[in-house]
Structure to design on (195 residues):
């Protein structure tokens, strides 16, 4: 994945200040961001829980996966706080993410450790772009949120790069598996933004 830098923000800009009639208000935009990010971090925790359930505590990759899960737990706790602080309704599809995330993690782990790493690589590639797109839409009035999203984005990139280093691209059927997971992630993002 090519190296990305944090999108630049315009110091004088305010979030959604250039909106057109029919565009989302700042509150609607932030609500959408936080709803989908909360759902995504919940799904990520469940993916790693599924992988760990299959691979077990004694697997050579378990400590690595546990480290990534621990970071996702921190992200999720932060989004739990933010949705309460800002009065954002979480996605109505949390029960689906609960099952789907675990199934994706467990299913890829059943295919082997490299498939589990391919799952991480694919998910994190989509999430990196997703956070970057959000950050670019935030103005100076949401600088703190943008900085927090950037911190999380860098940790997601670390997960991506770790997965590549640990054989993601050597997984059986890597290309198809990666494309399917990325498609699923992009679809889940679109749904969680709205539902």
């Amino acid at each position: 994945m090519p190296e990305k830098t944090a999108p630049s923000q315009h110091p004088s800009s305010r979030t959604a200040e250039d909106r057109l009639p029919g565009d989302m208000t700042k509150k609607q935009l932030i609500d959408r961001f936080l709803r989908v990010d909360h759902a995504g971090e919940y799904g990520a925790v469940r993916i790693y829980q599924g992988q760990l359930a299959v691979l077990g505590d004694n697997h050579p990759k378990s400590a690595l996966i546990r480290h990534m899960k621990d970071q996702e737990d921190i992200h999720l706790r932060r989004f739990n706080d933010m949705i309460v602080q800002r009065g954002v309704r979480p996605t109505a599809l949390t029960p689906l993410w609960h099952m789907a995330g675990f199934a994706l993690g467990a299913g890829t782990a059943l295919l082997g450790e490299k498939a589990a790493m391919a799952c991480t690589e694919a998910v994190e590639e989509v999430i990196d772009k997703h956070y970057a797109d959000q950050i670019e839409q935030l103005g100076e009035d949401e600088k703190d949120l943008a900085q927090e999203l950037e911190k999380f984005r860098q940790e997601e990139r670390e997960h991506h790069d770790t997965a590549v280093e640990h054989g993601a691209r050597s997984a059986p059927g890597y290309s198809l598996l990666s494309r399917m997971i990325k498609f699923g992630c992009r679809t889940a993002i679109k749904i969680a933004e709205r539902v």
